[in-house]
């Protein structure tokens, strides 16, 4: 997780969508600068990228920012039926989604091959499923889409503007007492669990170790789809297991409505921090932070 720079919050007089957007762009620029420095010695770093999902709770307001195909789901108490409802707070930037393909076509009207159906999967330029990320310099700056980068990443024609975006989509909403918890997870979890299934697991189990319980539930589903046992799936080498299920990263953040509602609370600027990254396909990661109101 890239910590939101304190100077951004200071110059904007507090937290805002603009502060988070600046933090994403600053992270992107720092990474592209690293790619440039190491280009001659480690050119393949130009093909490295990550999704980024961030949550910030500040003075009773929730900010969700997403670039890539991770997702955050809110567990909200429905008092009338005394049950927990799943509310999805982000949407994925994945070429498999029609609206994402439409956005890509509108941004690149002169490129009929901006999205290509390859092996029954929609991919940007036939290479990558996500349309937004941190990194992936080879699809953002033409100077990195050439030798000595591996041929499989190089495009046959040059491009004059970034193919992928690093700007996140941002949601801002006030938290209410019914909002119980947030589940931040990479797409590996959501491939095997629905939003409501994940929320039901968190609601019905003890808090301690709940993220690991979600992970196990997803892996059990992955094993079931392959007609094998969970214990057998766990024995498979990590490198090979990538063919059985995607990388999975999970953070669960429980919301204390008493603290969230106390906007005058004066605690440390950042009292809760979480961050994670995944390896394998290099396209996952999420983070969450709070200001003492969580």
From TrEMBL:
Domain PPM-type phosphatase: 1-255
Transmembrane region(s): 45-65
SUPFAM superfamilies (alphabetical): PP2C-like
SMART domains assigned: PP2Cc
A single MF term (Gene Ontology): protein serine/threonine phosphatase activity
Keyword annotations of the record: Membrane, Transmembrane, Transmembrane helix
UniProt name for this protein: Probable protein phosphatase 2C 38 isoform X4
Underlying gene: LOC105119562
């Amino acid at each position: 997780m890239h910590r939101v720079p304190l100077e951004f919050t200071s110059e904007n007089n507090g937290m805002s969508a603009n502060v988070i957007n600046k933090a994403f762009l600053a992270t992107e620029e720092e990474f592209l600068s690293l790619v440039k420095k190491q280009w001659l010695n480690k050119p393949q770093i130009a093909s490295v990228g990550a999704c980024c999902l961030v949550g910030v709770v500040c003075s009773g307001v929730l900010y969700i920012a997403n670039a890539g195909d991770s997702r955050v789901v809110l567990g909200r108490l429905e008092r009338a039926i005394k049950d927990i409802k799943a509310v999805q707070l982000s949407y994925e930037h994945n070429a498999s989604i029609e609206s994402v393909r439409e956005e890509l076509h509108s941004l690149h009207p002169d490129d009929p091959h901006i999205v290509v159906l390859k092996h029954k999967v929609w991919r940007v330029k036939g290479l990558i499923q996500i349309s937004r990320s941190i990194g992936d310099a080879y699809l953002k700056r033409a100077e990195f889409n050439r030798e000595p980068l591996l041929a499989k990443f190089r495009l046959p024609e040059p491009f004059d503007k970034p193919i992928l975006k690093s700007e996140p989509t941002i949601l801002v909403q006030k938290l209410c007492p019914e909002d119980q918890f947030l589940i931040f997870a990479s797409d590996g979890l959501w491939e095997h669990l629905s939003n409501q299934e994940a929320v039901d697991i968190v609601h019905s189990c003890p808090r301690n170790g709940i993220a690991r319980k979600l992970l196990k539930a997803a892996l059990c589903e992955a094993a079931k789809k392959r007609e094998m046992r969970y214990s057998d799936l766990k024995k498979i080498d990590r490198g090979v297991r990538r063919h059985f299920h995607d990388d999975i990263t999970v953070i669960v953040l429980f919301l204390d409505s008493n603290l969230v509602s106390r906007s005058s609370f004066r605690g440390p600027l950042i009292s809760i921090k979480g961050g994670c990254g995944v390896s394998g396909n290099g396209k996952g990661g999420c983070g969450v932070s709070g200001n003492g109101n969580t």
